[in-house]
Amino acid sequence: MRPLLLFMLFIVGSLNVVGLQAGEPKPLQIGDHRELFVDDYLIGKMKNVSLRLHQPVDEGVVLKFDKPWEGLFCGYCTIIKDGDLYRAYYRGRPQAGADGDTGEVYCYAESKDGIHWTKPELSLFEKQGFKKNNIILADAAPMTHNLSPFLDTRPGVPESERYKALGGTMKSGLVAFTSPDGIHWKQHPAGTVISKEMVPFPYMFDSQNVAFWSPVEKKYISYFRVFKDKLRRIARTESDDFIHWSEPVLMEYTHRGDKSPIEHLYTNQTHPYFRAPHIYLAVAARFMPGRQVLTDEQAEKIGVHPRYFKDTSDAILMTTRGGNMYDRTFLSGFITGGIGAQNWVSRTNYPALNVVQTGPAEMSVYVNQDYAQPTAHLRRYSLRLDGFASVRADYAGGELVTKPLIFDGSELSINFSTSAAGGIKVEIQDENGKPIPGFTLADAREQIGNEINRIVTWKGGSDVSALSGKPVRLKFVMKDADLYSLQFVK
Fold it and tell me: Which branch of life, at top level (predicted)?
């Protein structure tokens, strides 16, 4: 019996070993992608470091909605960087009214730097006795409620359809539009491309419905709002041709591996991050219905419309890498209401669609503020490139070790900042955590400073091409420092 028992124990032990090996996660294939620390994707282990959300810097008003055809209820803004030209699109609405009625138009502004904006006199539509104005779409209700343009980057797209847009309400469904130049728009012959009959959720389309071409998924993606269990939620659908769309699926939320609280999200503003298009950013408007901040007297003093101060809202940051899951790594506010009663009314602090680069080391996000007030405007906020979040080590120091990953490149570039007393050292380990000779902490040169693109070096130099294509881990030993992103470059 004893030999048989020993043999059985050997077999069980062998199976357990095989099972453990089979259950180990495969190394991440990051290639030469830039990876941001906006989620837990790269993170294996952290010791005395944490993920830190950064707040954008208020840079002030860039567009006042002060034309007679614009007014208090301008909203659903989109910002597009097309080469050296920045374009802004937004709904014009001087008076309150029903969603999708004839009182809504779509307006246009442009800029050479994303900071100083002008409203061209286009003379495409006459409104309120003005022939010269910045209106690009009118007399097209209900699509003028929430037209959401995008620059179509699909290879081979016809010049006449270089710009595309979706717009409409539940009454019309989402209707397709095209434009050769982003100014002159026409409805696509297909008309409604996403109808309410396609959507397995009640009440939809009544906020900004975004779409874009994904160079990673190689298809068009659209995110739009629905209601589920009386909560404002987001659904996703996809298409190969922008005309025929799949059945929408409901987006779910996760927070650091657990279920995230579900909150009302009025707009989602999901789009590929321009420096890492495999990561979709969602700078979403979090809506708090019935959470009244102002008294009647305060509301009257700032001149807000009496229907629009019973709620409040701010902006949050989410990400997704495709599929039906948003990662809400950070539950706290990303852009919160500023000082003053005017920032704490209903439907204010709504972010515009798209984050764009506005300087060598700067990017900007734009926010619709002072909604339903005479001072309604679009405001700009700035961040360093990739600076949404970071791995942060305090003065006492800490460590980050990544999951096993496979890269493609010859050098490691990091986006980081330190204090004068701080620094970052990088060790490259094999997939089991054993330091690789020549790339150990003892070999590493400390990185000190504040740069968007610093090539990491060791005593032997910066060349890591011998490790390209092999599973490795990166160990960052940090003190009083922030690490925003990394990328292997050739």
Answer: Bacteria
